[in-house]
Amino acid sequence: MRVFKNHRHAISLLACAVPIAALAGGGSIDRTVVAAANGEVVISNVSGTIDVRGWDRNEVQVIGHLGDDVERLDVESGGSRTFVKVVLPRGNSHDGEAVIEVRVPKASSVEVSAVSADVSSHGVLGTQRLKSVSGEITADIAGDESEVKSVSGDVTVRGSGKPLSLRMSSVSGNLDLLNAAGKLDVVTVSGDARVTMGEASEVRGRTTSGEFELRAKLTPDGRVDLEGVSGDMTLRLSAPGGLSTEIESFSGDIEGCLADNVERVSKYGPGVRLNVRAAETGGARVRAKTLSGSIDICDR
Amino acid sequence: MTGQFFGRRVKRIDELAQDLPPGRDLWPAISAGIAQAIEAEKGASAPTVASSAGRYYWRPASALAAAVALVAVGMWIGRAMTLPSGDGMVASTPGAAENGAALIPTAWQRDEKYREQRNALLVEVQVRLQAMPAAERDKVGASLATLRRSIGEIEAALGRDPANALLQELLVNSCQEEMRALTAVRDAGSQES
Amino acid sequence: MTKTDTVVGFDLALIERARKGDSRAFERLYRDHVGRVHGLCLRMTRNPDLAADCVQDTFIKAWKALPRFEARSSFSTWLHRIAVNTVLEKRRGPANAELVVEDPTEYEEPVLSFDTPVEESELEAAIQSLPRGAQDALVLCGVYGYEHSEAASMLGIAVGTCKAQLHRARGLLRDRLERGVR
Question: Looking at the domain assignment, is residue C98 inside a domain?
Answer without folding.
Answer: no
